[in-house]
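Late entry, adenosine-5'-diphosphate-glucose complex.
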Amino acid sequence: MSKTIIVSNRLPLSLNINQNEVEATPSVGGLATGLKSVHADGNGIWIGWSGLTEEEINPSLAPNVEKALENQKCRSVSLSEKEVDGFYYGFSNRTLWPLFHYFTEYSEFNNEDWETYKRVNQKFADLVIENIEDNDRVWVHDYQLLLVPQMVKEKRPDVKIGFFLHIPFPSYEVFRTLPWREEILQGMMGADLIGFHTYDYERHFLSSVQRLLICDLDFNNVLYDTRNVKVDSFPMGIDFNKFHNAAIEHSKAKVKSEVQESIDKHKLIKGDTQFILSIDRLDYTKGIAQRIMAFEHFLEKYPEYLGKVRLVMLAVPSRSNVPQYQDLKNEIDQLVGRVNGKFSEVNWTPIWYFYRSMPFENLIDLYCSCKIALLTPVRDGMNLVAKEYIASRVDNTGVLILSEMAGAAKELNEALIINPNNLDQIADAIKTALVMPEKDQIKGNIIMKDRVQRYNVERWANEFLVSLEDVVSKKPETAAR
Ligand code: ADQ
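Prediction complete; structure with ligand written out below:
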């Protein structure tokens, strides 16, 4: 029986080692949910890194770790601390991540990191090759593994390989600055199907391939050597039912969480307070600093809302080993301090700032209690939070203010779409959202919710795999064209 081999940087689980006991707990992230049925189907397996370095796993425990992973149908690539440093914190997050999000000034071109990236990608590819049986298909994910498709294709040209990029693909003018641009494109072109969130990313990729690898295009098919590589867009969805059902439960719950109690208490004291929600990983691509400044500008421009509006800002700690993330953390701490210092009253602070991950139930509380969601990334492949917010609005009220730079804006165009660098426009959008009649909120949200429900994460995974199955990988003969 053939199987799908999923390959991603991190495995969809976390490992806990307690003395001699090894426990593997499945994670509940979007990718893990979307690929659950593919992974569970038949003898499908997931290949990735466990999150623990070779130095962190006692050699005598290694067999137990393997066993715990195997029970979850996972195989782990073993990485040393040095490899994680060069491959993950280095080339992936100091070179590719900033460059692909148009932060060219942050992108470091370090040859040693590039060598480590190649070596680690080869480790992933070797483990994939070791696990391939005839008629299997391979689905590789994201910017950490751009070279894996070609490395696998070289050894197993008979196997169908899909690749999906979760972040934007930049325009040719930005991508061309990368010293190893041809090698990266060749790596991706080992796949038979390459997927992006939006048509724009697809177009940028095709333009780079055409100019740098000098090959012909036939619509969205690249004629590459003897092969045909299909390039297409597959906007990723969310597990709609999970968010929607949890929100319904939330509305019925008798026992309230701490977060919900604080919100209710505040509403009781301040009566007409409105809560504006902002949720992201703490990342310079998410436009968090601009968002705080736009909120500050809103309070200055519309002082009648002082004491009546609060920004609830959640930032999940992320990549804190990378200097730009440490600087950003300091900048945000200062900005929050400045705004709160400037406007706070005895019973009111304008910004509630949480620098931590929140349990799912608290996220739902916030999605349900905040009448406005303010998501202003300066670049974002998709932005799943926008879709989660819409899915959680049981009564269809609420206003989503969304950056035009997020892939999600292509699908959620009934939201208030803003340019994240235009602080005045954001301030006005907040005002518009605060006075928007409920019937208008409901009208737009019903349309968006229907779309988010139909194009859920399972459908996204299925459509990608069906398309992969249908790709005719052999380039048509010139005479036949
Ligand atoms: P991310 O950059 O991580 O993903 P996003 O799509 O918004 O961004 O997903 C974040 C996830 O983390 C959401 O599911 C959200 O619920 C959760 N989350 C956020 N804050 C949290 C908190 N404080 N506590 C707990 N959970 C929290 C990358 C790309 C995106 C792309 C996705 C999927 O950068 O553009 O949408 O992959 O392809």
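The two ends are 35 Å apart (CA to CA). Will revisit in the morning.
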